[in-house]
Amino acid sequence: MKPYVIVNPVAGSVGNLNARLKQLGPLDANEVRVTQHAGEAKTLARQAVRAGCKYVIAAGGDGTLNEVINGITVSRQRHQVCVGIVPLGTANDFARSIGLTGDVDATIDILRAKMTKGIDLVRMTSERTRYFVNASSGGFSGVVDEKLTPGIKSAWGPLAYLRGAAAALAELHAYRTTVICDDSEKLVIDLYNVIIANGRFVAGGLPIAPQADLSDGLLDAVLVPKRSAAETALLAAEMLLGKHLSSDSVTFRRAKKISVRSEPGMWFNADGELVGNEPTVFQILPRALDFVISKR
Q: How far apart, in whole angstroms, are the C-alpha atoms of residue 191 and residue 139?
């Protein structure tokens, strides 16, 4: 099963990646494709699957992986395809959840072994439908994403998200939000932030959903209510340590389906890429994606 590798050359330090990719086996020019613009990874993944490819590798960050997954999911053959990742991005949050450390040589060994696991996929429906594997954030996180220009990511690296948060603080405000879990429980809260997680990490390693399981068939929802400045600062410290779920400062729910509507509309991202600010429904698709994982 020969891989088809999609490389984002601006996601991070590519270095001598091409030489290392040769360890996966003999690959011709049509099996290692370098993207030239945003959105191209989705197109390439879709074309590869339609051409009969059964193994697609995303070499890039969370955004590159998200594009690849969205390219695969539009195909009826998605259940016959396994996906791998070489984490080269600024955050690499999904890679952390599956035990990849960022060591390219170790990752190549994992990709060669092709040990796969069925992981959950999340369908995100608003004005259009998009899929993600790691997390979607709305509210303050959406404002932070607006501040994260490619220049900031390049210059600040792993600290880019802190830089973006500092730039967005002046625009911090609450959203009157209605959250419905599994069409049964309805919450109406003034929120700063909504995180719908499948993986455990966001923003370059923040353990926002420390108990999340990629294969449990459930979404982890972390709702951050409006609080005083002092309480918000304390909560931020608890989040850095992954201790916030035991705090009264957040509301935590698990569900298969979560609907979010707010006033004003929250800007949501999908695996770090801005999507839109319409009312949104998140639904888990249990073990819908076959993913190459760490050997651990």
A: 8
